[in-house]
Amino acid sequence: MPEPVHVIGSLMVDRVLRVATLPRAGETVTARSATILPGGKGANQAVAAARCGARVRMLGRTGADGRFIVDELLRAGIDASAVTTDDRMSGSAAVMVDDHGMNAIVIAPEANTRLTETAIDAFLDGAAPGGILLVQNECSGLAHAVANATRHGLRVWLNAAPMDDRVRAVDLSLVDCLLVNETEAMALASNDEPHAAFRQLCDAWPQLDLVLTLGAAGWIARVDGVVLRGAALSVQVIDTVGCGDAFVGALSALRSEGMAWPDALARANAAGAIAATISGAIPSIPSREAIEALVRSLGAGSPTT
Hints:
Layout: E1 5-8, E2 12-18, E3 33-39, H1 41-51, E4 56-63, H2 67-75, E5 79-87, E6 91-97, E7 103-108, H3 117-125, E8 132-135, H4 142-151, E9 155-159, H5 165-168, E10 177-181, H6 182-189, H7 194-204, E11 209-213, E12 219-223, E13 226-230, H8 243-256, H9 261-275, H10 288-298
Parallel strand pairs: 1-4, 1-8, 2-6, 4-5, 8-9, 9-10, 10-11
Antiparallel strand pairs: 2-3, 6-7, 11-12, 12-13
Helix pairs in contact: 1-8, 3-4, 6-7, 8-9, 9-10
């Protein structure tokens, strides 16, 4: 049986605004539409892992108005018994999406910043050794969760998003897999060229499996000591919200069942591509069947070294 994926992460009430162009500094633009959707990197990635077939349990915190996000977790088959909805203010995100599918996002973490170390410890006490702990950087207690997960014998996967000093405070020697986009990689390496930043991170942390997503330029990874590359898939982009989370969640699920890295990365790439064709975060996350169908139709299963 595949090892479970344990997610400690955020829940966000996403307020999505469709605009012709993203506003410049000091500019006011009129949105064509406004929609409230379930989101948060933790919730998105948990759903992505579950829809890809993983057994998933999640720890998180939100307010009463975030209950509909928990309902989405439950519909995906996630054990959300450790998610509380009693905070005074839910986390939220203002998401602007332009006519080209590009987005700009501002988050207000709120409830996610009040996740306690006591709650983290209790959640990890319920995790058997060998599973994956998937964490991001929208919640409090990141460094504590990483350190405690290691003591429980879990494989730690860190999606360093958003990138800030809390990620730098994490002992990366305790992390098994680091997942970053180009902006995060450049910030973490203090290098303004993504491929150079990737090489720098590989040299600094040789024990890590390292995955760098590059948007329209595809992805590059150093896994089991081997560098693999994959191209972005050609799809009709509606919006890019949740694409990275679909990639990360699917990849964690496929690795939890023991799929080889090249095959798992190809399918994670397909998951991200499908997410770009549908509006929203959680609503855009594909099923395992949809991922496999796209891989078959495009012959997308052969990363290069």
